[in-house]
């Protein structure tokens, strides 16, 4: 059976059509949902007197911030999305990347604090859930592989989705955002290879969150994920929607 991994950014999660679209997709394939929720995390940080910080589109996470991230992402955001999916008829179940050792990561740059990179997924729990007909909804936190106590880490949702897609040998990985795809001068780029991504980054066209998605897409492509696309909710039902990330063309 086809396996599809969908990563939804916080803004994309607000689409009224999202629960029905995911439910319809899950009726045709095995689906795993990975969600973000950065805007809500930032809002809660400010309410608590903490100022959100980012480097290159990736969140800096202090020890205090990690408690907020876990509370918002694994708590309210995850459970709200699961509730909407259950109402739409999906057999949704919410889990954290920390559950069952699903996601592990390492701190590779102390400037980011409790943020994990080099994310690895153990697909055992997801395979069990999918085999039983569940639709897993995953919050992007991980266990620290370098911690004897298994301390938690915040991981970028795009990195989490990529690791899960790789571990499941997914047929498709979709990064669902609030834009039609990768844009240049307001126009969607239908297909993009690693060289094109490097060009967009060097010219400052791809930056912040979009650059993080493109970096994750290249990693997924190199690890053998069947297809990677970036775009709106239309990705779930329209195979032509969004920007498709393709391998580099080999020189002959």
UniProtKB/TrEMBL annotation:
The keyword Nuclease does not apply. Pathway: Amino-acid biosynthesis; L-arginine biosynthesis; N(2)-acetyl-L-ornithine from L-glutamate: step 2/4. Pfam families: AA_kinase (PF00696). Keywords: Amino-acid biosynthesis, Arginine biosynthesis, ATP-binding, Cytoplasm, Kinase, Nucleotide-binding, Signal, Transferase. GO terms for cellular component: cytoplasm. One of its GO terms (biological process) is L-arginine biosynthetic process via ornithine. Its main location: cytoplasm. Its EC number is 2.7.2.8. GO terms for molecular function: acetylglutamate kinase activity; ATP binding. Residues 1-29 form the signal peptide. Residues 3-230 form the Aspartate/glutamate/uridylate kinase domain. It is found in: Cytoplasm. Substrate binds at residues 37-38, 59, 154. InterPro entries: AceGlu_kinase-like_sf (IPR036393), AcgluKinase_fam (IPR004662), ArgB (IPR037528), Asp/Glu/Uridylate_kinase (IPR001048). It catalyses: N-acetyl-L-glutamate + ATP = N-acetyl-L-glutamyl 5-phosphate + ADP. The record marks 7, 213 as: Transition state stabilizer. It is an enzyme of class 2 (transferase). Catalyzes the ATP-dependent phosphorylation of N-acetyl-L-glutamate. Belongs to the acetylglutamate kinase family. ArgB subfamily. PANTHER family: N-ACETYLGLUTAMATE SYNTHASE, N-ACETYLGLUTAMATE SYNTHASE, MITOCHONDRIAL. This is Acetylglutamate kinase.
